[in-house]
Structure to design on (201 residues):
């Protein structure tokens, strides 16, 4: 049912969804394998869609860990609200990841340890992608990580402008195969790749 719902949304909102099929469980496992669930106090997910990655986060998290989902598609947002209505310490927001700082303040949440993203940066307008990535590196905790996936490496150099370290893995058991990018910021650096650390520190 979720797969059919996802396909319908991908056809009606191709630029926002960015894929024809939902992510596989294999990709979900790879996206969260680097998360320290015992120490993480706050985890944010951008563009959870039907909740493939969300389920992995909720199953593995410490019960006290707070999870925030930011979904811009209203149909997916309503689906997530119903699907996870019994979950505690879960906050589901209908809005844009560009406003993540605002949402964290509204729910009185500290800087997240991890931001997991299913957003299609290849199809998003450049200015929106810039806003999302810039605000993400600002709100990450000191040793926080931004973990995203893309179907090509076309946006790797673009993403590297905002993060000092980007590690790439590949998951072939997804349709289509995907690259997982694990990104972090050295907030002690004064300047890198033309972007001042004062923006992200």
């Amino acid at each position: 049912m979720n797969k059919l719902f996802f396909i319908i949304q991908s056809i009606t909102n191709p630029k926002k969804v960015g894929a024809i099929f939902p992510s596989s469980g294999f990709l979900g496992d790879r996206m969260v394998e680097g998360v320290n669930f015992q120490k993480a106090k706050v985890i944010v997910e951008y563009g959870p869609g039907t909740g493939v990655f969300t389920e992995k986060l909720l199953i593995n998290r410490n019960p006290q860990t707070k999870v925030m989902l930011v979904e811009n598609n209203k149909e997916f947002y309503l689906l997530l609200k119903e699907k996870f209505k019994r979950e505690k310490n879960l906050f589901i927001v209908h809005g844009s990841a560009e406003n993540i700082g605002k949402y964290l303040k509204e729910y009185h949440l500290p800087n997240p340890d991890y931001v997991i993203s299913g957003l299609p940066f290849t199809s998003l307008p450049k200015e929106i992608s810039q806003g999302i990535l810039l605000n993400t590196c600002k709100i990450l905790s000191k040793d926080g990580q931004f973990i995203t996936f893309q179907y090509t490496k076309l946006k790797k150099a673009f993403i590297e402008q905002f993060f000092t370290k980007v590690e790439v893995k590949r998951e072939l058991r997804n349709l289509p195969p995907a690259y997982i990018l694990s990104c972090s910021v050295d907030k002690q650096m004064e300047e890198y790749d033309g972007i001042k650390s004062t923006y992200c520190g």
Summary: The two ends are 42 Å apart (CA to CA). The domain at 27-200 is CATH 3.40.50.150 (Rossmann fold). Strands lie at 42-46, 66-71, 90-94, 114-117, 145-150, 165-171, 178-184, 191-192, 195-196. The chain has a mean pLDDT of 87.
